[in-house]
Amino acid sequence: MRYAIISDIHGNVEALRAVLHDIESQEIDAILCLGDIVGYYPDPEQCVELIREHAAYSVAGNHDYAAIGKIDTNNFTYYAFEAMEWTKKMLSEESKKYLSLLPMTIEMDGMLFTHATPANPSSFVYIFPNSEKAILEAFSSMVHRINFIGHAHWPFVMTQNDVRIIRCSDRVINIYEDNYYLINVGSIGQPRNFDPRSSYSIYDTDTSQVSLLTVEYDFTVTQQKVLDNKLPPFLAERLAKGR
Fold first, then answer.
1. How far is CA 216 from the centre of its chain?
2. Cβ pair 105, 113 in contact under 8 A
3. What CATH code is carried by the domain that includes residue 219?
4. Contact yes or no for 190/198 (Cβ under 8 A)
5. Which helix (H) or strand (E) holds 184?
6. 149 closest CA partner among 114, 179, 103, 200
7. Is 5 helix (H, G, I), strand (E, B) or coil?
8. Greater model confidence, 198 or 177
9. Parallel, antiparallel, or unpaired for β 209-215 and 198-204?
10. How far is CA 32 from the centre of its chain?
11. pLDDT of res. 201
12. What is the rounded distance in angstroms from the CA atom of residue 196 to the CA atom of residue 240?
């Protein structure tokens, strides 16, 4: 099986379409989404529709649950809060129902898929390469050897061997049976790794390899939509910088 794993679309339909187009050329058996379909950018409804059409499975992200009132947004940043209040008004009842039914985790083929830390998915704790406590808690909690996450908008691969971080310049990662893996697939709609391209991953169960891919898209279209819809201009600016 060849799985495409995508995450953190955040209402950026231009980026999502570009990635889906790239996936079409990769001989993929199933697409899995790790959440945050909505939030920040101006096409939440279209993004939900595309995920419903193309993704075989999806888990919930914190922005998905925020959009339907399942979690409080008081701890959101100013930009996230403002965009979420706007997003809530743009979603149809059908899309809200879809988001409300998304699970926190999916277990499949010996893998675990969550939006945030596998240690406690509903806490939505971020894991970054320097998040020592969160990393140790994640690896201590692991039942599955291969754990895919999103949330941090920063692609990376970690193993439990002294929490070794495999740099994303290594675009194809071999998965070995004696290791446990924590794989962040990056963000489609709002990269923060100083690369404006969208990121996603492919896992091939036959070759036991994870591929980390990037896709270019015309972010200037999304930027103009942000301004046209009077969303915070910073959300447009950051797309060009990938941060």
1. 16
2. yes
3. 3.60.21.10
4. no
5. strand 181-184
6. 114
7. strand
8. 198
9. antiparallel
10. 10
11. 96
12. 6
Q: Give the number of domains in the chain.
A: 1
List all residues 6 or more positions away from 116 whose beta carbon is below 8 Å from its beta carbon.
61, 62, 123, 124, 125, 126, 127, 149, 150, 151
Distance CA 74, CA 59 (A): 22
The arithmetic mean of pLDDT across residues 23-50, rounded, is 98
Task: Express each pLDDT in 93-144 by its tens digit.
Answer: 999 999 999 999 999 999 999 999 999 999 999 998 888 899 989 999 999 9
- Tally DSSP H helices, then E strands, for the chain: 8, 12
CB neighbours (10 Å) of residue 214?
18
CB of 152 closer than 8 Å to CB of 114: no
pTM of the model: 0.95
Q: What angle do CA 81, 84, 87 make, to 5 degrees?
A: 160
CA distance 186 to 170: 14
Residue 166 has a pLDDT of 59
Q: Which domain holds residue 23?
A: 2-241
pLDDT band at 161 (very low <50, low <70, confident <90, very high): confident
